[in-house]
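Fig. S4 source data, part A: sequence.
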Amino acid sequence: MAITRHDCITCKVRNCSILDTCDTHTLTAISTFKISKSLQKGERLFSEGDPVPGVYFIKSGFLKVELNGKQGRPLILQIAGRGAIFGHRANASHPCHTSSATAVSEVLYCYIPHDLFNEIADNSPTLKQQIINQFLNELELAEKKSINLAHKTVREKIGEALLTFAKVYNYEEKKHPFRIHFSRQDIADLTGTTKEQVSKTLNDFEKENLIKLVAKKINYLNIETLRAISRVTR
């Protein structure tokens, strides 16, 4: 595994992470102590129950973040891409990861030991506030996911999953299609449905000219209709 160093100040991913509003002093401190690493598809960044040694910033690639469910079936909590952060919630009372993160493509990320990150955050009110904002965003997403799993239909859940992929992959309507790194089983684990339900619903969406599927390439034809089906606002 190659280990390199990169400057946070000039990093193009910074504007979509919690470091976006940090001052030069804070960014320089993080750059001094962090290192950059990579994961291959199928490798885990961390597993549920592992101690949290530090904070991870995702630079590129995609990971699925999941919990072990009943009878060994996982529930995918989120799809993480560039700008995502992990390890920031750990403290003396919560020293372990509560979920697992697995690369579904090649992933590049930066890592900084937890004690050093906390020391930098203690001296940066802006970073401290950004971490709090991140907590609140994650709580809101968890609440929405709980409601969706309990009350939305299969069609609504899968429609919302497609919109999630469109956002994560930065898809622009009527532009080139994109190749997703997630299987139908992954989509089922994300939506709390079954692989068979996913396949049927995707076929229905294609018949309705909402999407076009070619192997793992997806071209969204009607984002607004998918939003209406899924009851998702902008």
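Fig. S4 source data, part B ends here. The chain has a mean pLDDT of 91.
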